[in-house]
Amino acid sequence: MFAEILTVGDELLTGNTVDSNSAFIARRLTERGYWVRRKTTVGDDVEEIKKVIREILDRKPEVLIISGGLGPTHDDVTMLAVAEALNRELVLCEECLERIREFYRELYEKGYIDDPELNEGRKKMAYLPEGAEPLKNTEGAAPGAYIEHVGVKIFVLPGMPREMKAMLEKEVLPRLGERKFIQRKLLAEITDESKLAPLLIEALERFDVRIHSSPKGFGRYIGIIIFGESEGEIERAKAFLEEKGIRFEEGW
Amino acid sequence: MFAEILTVGDELLTGNTVDSNSAFIARRLTERGYWVRRKTTVGDDVEEIKKVIREILDRKPEVLIISGGLGPTHDDVTMLAVAEALNRELVLCEECLERIREFYRELYEKGYIDDPELNEGRKKMAYLPEGAEPLKNTEGAAPGAYIEHVGVKIFVLPGMPREMKAMLEKEVLPRLGERKFIQRKLLAEITDESKLAPLLIEALERFDVRIHSSPKGFGRYIGIIIFGESEGEIERAKAFLEEKGIRFEEGW
Predict the structure, then answer these.
(1) Are B74 and A41 in contact (CB < 8 Å)?
(2) Which CATH number is correct for A182-250, 3.30.499.10, 3.40.50.1220, 3.30.70.270, 3.30.70.600?
């Protein structure tokens, strides 16, 4: 069950924005038992986005989540790039257009904008790759898209964190099934990291868990995250390490 | 002058850590006039890191900055992966070993660690790809590495933000020359995004600048970043847009 994440936006490549979206998506996918194997970020460029989507599809992840570049401005080109990468046409989604029309009408009535009409930029957001299922945006104008293609579940989400998060929770996760993965963060007190390594490797062999470790402070503590499908299996892996002399504290 | 950034770490792929390192690196590179074309994140896995480095080298960036996975634990495998990707041996850097020895001796004397000896994990950090120039780590144990390979300047930096930042400022940027790129953030008050697009395209054609735009709020403001090599050129592009009726506020 492996997944990839693609975030799109020039502001991510100039460092003007820190990409917290991909961390949020990664956390949710990890909780569902997906192993996020790679994250990629490219700019608002049709050719670049297209190229990287094709590379990702060649690696055959089960899930690909794309975020960013769905808005009304000229450099929001993600849907077009997705369509081209999959050799599909962009087609008008009538219900999306209606929803976008309502969205701007409401903003107009609230006095947020001066013009409720659907200009080209606003209309553009209603075009999705042929065969895509629209994903509702409860927080903004641009719909997302869900496309199954060569066995990969592709979700295209907005880049505004509030919109992306709502769509991920309400529209994406329910389509990814119920399986849960649990993670447990521990702090191992140890002054010789080299003693820990063989024990972790043994634990990985004995139990159905994944373990990540990273140094915290100057070698006195190692942060450990044990991932598993059940509390019981995590508990058994932890008990095994404790028997071998590792002292744990909860959390970090 | 294009660049790529590769960050390495399982914690980035599980969403336990937000990758602020790559944004910091991207900002600094952008200021130097580099165009960061892609950012990639992979986990602490020799084969994955190796594979992605080879893909990046095939795209022939001028600069590749890699961050993460240089520490003493068993899953810090970035230097090994770099060496393998470049078909080079890992060789002992004597001056690095001496520096690491001193580092742990100091920590021991300050009472931070119980054992000043160089165990396997600590020694491992002194091995760099053959032909690499060591980069000083003023904030931690692990040295970085600078390698020129098939015309690509490769810098390998630690993942701890404090260590990475210090090494980037002191060891990397001085090796990338003096050229400066300036950016100016503006807020364009406009209620119809579609009117802005053709003006931006015209400005790009007339002036030696790059322009990024992204919506702020619900369509009343568009955030604009103009990048250029001189204040004068940015000012001219801005004046052109103002003449065409765009009203700007500074900053966002």
Answers:
(1) no
(2) 3.30.70.600
Task: Between B197 and B246, name the one with better pLDDT.
Answer: B246
Q: Where are the domains of chain A?
A: 2-176, 182-250
| Nearest by CB: A43 against B27, B37, B191 | B37
Here the ipTM equals 0.86
Q: What is the mean pLDDT of residues A219-239?
A: 86
Close Cβ partners of A122 (under 8 Å, ≥ 6 residues apart): A72, A100, A104, A141, B193, B194
Contact flag A13-B28 (C-beta cutoff 8 Å): no
Helix (H, G, I), strand (E, B) or coil at B202: helix
The confidence score (pLDDT) of residue A216 equals 64
The answer for B 20-49 residues in CB contact with A (under 8 A) is: 20, 22-30, 35-44, 48
Q: What is the pLDDT of residue A250?
A: 79
Q: How many residues does chain B have?
A: 252
Q: Which residues of A touch B193 (CB under 8 A)?
A: 72-74, 119, 121-122
A43 contacts B30? CB cut-off 8 A: no
pLDDT tens-digit readout, A37-81: 999 999 999 999 999 999 999 999 999 999 999 998 878 999 999
User: Is pLDDT of A218 > 60?
Assistant: no
Alpha-carbon dihedral angle through residues A9, A14, A18, A23, given to the nearest 10 degrees: 50
A178 SS3 class: coil
Q: What is the average per-residue pLDDT within A17-31?
A: 95
Find which of B4, B10, B55, B173 to mutate to test the A interface (most A CBs within 10 Å of its CB). Answer: B10
Contact map slice: A 123-182 vs B, CB within 8 A: none
CATH superfamily name and code, A2-176: MoaB/Mog-like domain (3.40.980.10)
Task: Give the Cα separation of A173 and A188 in Å (integer).
Answer: 33
In B136-220 the beta strands, taken as DSSP E runs, fall at 144-149, 152-157, 182-189, 209-216
- Is it the case that residue A238 has pLDDT exceeding 90? yes
Distance CA B108, CA B116 (A): 5
